[in-house]
Amino acid sequence: MSAQILDGKAIAAELRESIRQEVDRQVAAGNSRPGLAVILVGEDPASQVYVRNKKIACEKAGFNDVSEVLPAETTQEEVLALIDKLNADPEVHGIIVQLPVPDHIDPEEIIERIDPCKDVDGFHPYNVGRMATRMPIMAPCTPHGVMTMLSKTGIGLRGLDAVVVGASNIVGVPQLLELLNERATVTICHSATKNLPEKVAQADLVVVGVGIPEMVKGEWIKPGAIVIDVGINRLEDGRLVGDVEFEVAKERASWITPVPGGVGPMTIATLLENTMKAAYKLDCKSKKA
Ligand code: NDP
């Protein structure tokens, strides 16, 4: 039997609508709109598309978009000074730096300069540490969006054997921590992992974020497993495919995410969710940030 499709587009639309309604309630109660600052340095075309999409999503959710586009020759000190200014601005609740940045910019120093309470990407070491010690505040958007999708299956994660393929700071590692915090038993795989097919084959849940088109073969999937494909790859013929061989995997899985229309839409929706939390719900200071 074919897998049920985890429709990220629909789940993200529902989440965005609930955020918009919450913003309306907060504004009616006299609170300000959430303000999100996306900092883009340079003119990377893919980044420009991402930033434009975030801008549109902000407007639709009723947020103030206070993004800053800086020329490629902007210095490290100038970016740090901008972050200091945004950190001090009470109307700015979320700050993210669109990656990649030009080579002369050190992204780690920039990320560490962001006030952890405004770090809505969840990349600041403080927030990574909170997640690693089971006290999360700001969770990275893509893996947290995956958790929201998983909650829609109605399947409990406790005790599941989960395999995460890919171990980057923005996808695999925070996904490991999110799943571990829900008491799944998690194996994480990367480019040095031996016997990847065997590891995937024992998983009740597979999350793949590698960046290699269809590298996880459908026949590796354990019958009945949940398959989450974070990968987005553009082929030469223009098609978008994930990191999982979807057509074969969907005949074995119980639930599967499509590409496009799976995890992708959840990332921006979760960014809005984090920014709303930062604006209204989160007393980060009392937690000694
Ligand atoms: P990175 O290149 O930063 O990380 C890739 C990871 O895959 C690394 O941990 C790497 O291992 C691992 N890897 C590489 N080759 C293999 C292999 N043969 N077997 C097992 N693991 C391997 O990529 P990202 O995490 O940034 O992105 C991964 C994918 O997810 C991309 O397709 C990207 O476009 C997509 N993405 C989608 C998002 C969304 O919103 N849907 C958001 C972010 C990313 P090692 O650590 O050893 O190098």
From TrEMBL:
Keywords: Amino-acid biosynthesis, Histidine biosynthesis, Hydrolase, Methionine biosynthesis, Multifunctional enzyme, NADP, One-carbon metabolism, Oxidoreductase, Purine biosynthesis
Organism: Thiomicrorhabdus xiamenensis
Gene name linked to the record: folD
Residues given in the record as NADP(+) binding sites: 166-168, 232
Pathway named in the protein's UniProt entry: One-carbon metabolism; tetrahydrofolate interconversion
Alphabetical list of CDD domains matching this protein: NAD_bind_m-THF_DH_Cyclohyd (cd01080)
Role, per record: Catalyzes the oxidation of 5,10-methylenetetrahydrofolate to 5,10-methenyltetrahydrofolate and then the hydrolysis of 5,10-methenyltetrahydrofolate to 10-formyltetrahydrofolate.
Protein name: Bifunctional protein FolD
Family: Belongs to the tetrahydrofolate dehydrogenase/cyclohydrolase family.
